[in-house]
Amino acid sequence: MNVALILLISAAVISMAVIPLMMRLAPVLGMIDQPDARKVHAIPVSRVGGIGIVIGALLPLLIWFPIDELLRAYLIGAAVLMIFGAVDDARELGHYVKFIGQGIAVISMVYVGDLWVSSVPFFDYTLPAAIGKPFTVFAMIGVINALNHSDGLDGLASGEALLSLMAIVYLSYLVGGDQIATAVAMVTIGGIFGFLRFNTHPARVFMGDSGSQFLGFTIGFLAVLLTQRIHTAMSPAVVLLLIGLPIVDILVVFYLRASGGMNWFKATRNHIHHRLLDLGFEHYETVVIIYSVQTLLVASGILLRYQPDWLITLVYLLVCITLFALLTTAERRGWRAGTGTFTAPLSAALSDLRDSQALRKLPYAILATAVPLALFGGAFLVAEVPQDFAVISGVLVIVLLAEVTFGKDFNSIIRRGIVYVTVVFLTYLLATSPAVEPALMQRLEFFYFGLLAVAVALTIRYCREVEFRTTPTDYLLLFIVLAVGVLPGELLSGNEIATGLIKAVILIYASELLLMASERRWTVMMLATIGALTVFAWQGLLA
Prior knowledge:
This protein has helices at residues 3-29, 49-64, 69-91, 95-112, 129-149, 156-174, 179-199, 208-230, 238-243, 245-259, 272-278, 283-303, 309-333, 345-351, 357-379, 387-406, 413-432, 438-462, 472-486, 495-516, 524-541; strands at residues 32-33, 45-46. By secondary structure, the chain is mostly helical. The two termini are 18 Å apart.
């Protein structure tokens, strides 16, 4: 089984398992984020999601991956930041104490792991260690705080980090794929996906400093590793584009605080997301706008990776200057979002069809038939199941049977998680080991997933029995899926895996809609999932 896939799934599952437990412990630990004038949430929310992200990321590395000196230094730094961040989330440490924790973590990476910046933009010579190492410590602490300060809306910091990590994984792959870079990025992506399950607006949990500092540290670590060791032909200025908006956001915030005579480190409402909210944009609109700009920046980083330093820096500055010029102009002119009255003709026409019985019932009926059929029937279209897949499938069958038989929550996270893992297994195995002639399989899949995608869209839009609200996370997944489909090369192990990811996302959304409407212990979906996992276990262990 592809190690990257194991790490990704393991991290997501562990994160989703740890976060609900930590949410129950949050009141006891004092890790509750109380609302105030600067914040946008109106009720107390636990801030323990970061612990789930970190544990979800670190455990798979300890279990599945060999530990060398560099990875050990990274793990020490990540653990230090989680501890300091968790204490800050519970006791509100001052910013100077937080700097101490950040310094310990970064010094571990630089002086123990011996990873530091020796090549900088606009200079042709290599920095000596006496300059490069202190510079790296300073820059890394800046990146950590940039991500930390961008964590102001549900899904915002995690989404920005996810886009950066996907770009880093792809760039690492293009030069052969460094094992440590791929492993660290994939487990962090998995941890974020597990967290986003609970952090879509309105969030049930925040990541807190333990999560945002870890994400900043990880992205900084990977950016230095990518440009200084893995791919030295790449312009070091590309780091600006890969990290993206958090850098310019914190610099502008510091400028506004200093010019206003305020304390640099005292929290204020002048981040990008605060300013967009003050212009009248809704929460999800604000997040989607920031996701869009961040996507533009990281995509530019991929495309311009070999261009001169001045060109990369110019592109970064032009995007950022344009964004802040528009913000400032709108603020000065008193412009407010949502004041227009124009309704798109297509949207108006579709709204007239809302009461159509066919649009209300037929798409959901298609999902209720097609998804279980794909899960159970698709398992028989797999030619060969690797042994590690079979072992995991066997364990999941036992867990799911116990959960369905004895569990009280008909829509529990355990059931959802196992269904999602089954979908990923199925799409991966069908992509890598189909039992049907490839040309026929391609035609069948084109028809099936095309029909399924239309049924998902119509169910979300028109089915009143399913209350599904699109969130910024949905747009984030759309960006990633489009990127996987458009970018040249292979992200995991082949183009089949890239298309398999698109299929998996469609099937997961279809499964989510069925799970949301589930009000019984035993459903066709549960039976199909149990059947698919049983087939995988049988084929891999006994066949």
